[in-house]
Amino acid sequence: MAKEVKNEVRIDKWLWAVRLFKTRSIAIEACKKGRITIKGVTVKPSRMIKAGDVIEVRRPPVTYSFEVLALSENRMGAKLVPEFMRDVTHPSQLEILEMSKMTGFVDRARGTGRPTKKDRRELEQFTDDYSFFDDWDLEEE
């Protein structure tokens, strides 16, 4: 018996298969949180996709767009991914990504742990730069 060629696949399986998400559970969660859209409409993990669909994946601050070239339910090697999808992300979104990299902002949520050694050094350097004010005796005037 020959293997059936599928013309539709669940979006969560495809996102995992083309390595956009590390696990299928993470792909399902992204769909449930509304981060995956097709033609501006958020989709459920069970949504069936076909070749030619354009899928938008929102990973703040950027929304990536991918065109589905072929379908697969099985995870593949990274070298095979270009046969199954094409990146059609708008250049303005890529500019946003470059700008966020250039700012050097470390996106660590408040209270998520202790400062790193680098953070400590930067804080010490900042406080040492203004330590010359300690030498002033302002009360003698």
Automatic annotation (TrEMBL):
PROSITE patterns from the UniProt entry: S4
One Pfam family per UniProt: S4
Gene Ontology biological process terms, A to Z: cellular response to heat
Keyword tags: DNA-binding, RNA-binding
GO molecular function, one term: ribosomal large subunit binding
InterPro entries: HSP15, S4_RNA-bd, S4_RNA-bd_sf
Name assigned to this protein: RNA-binding S4 domain-containing protein
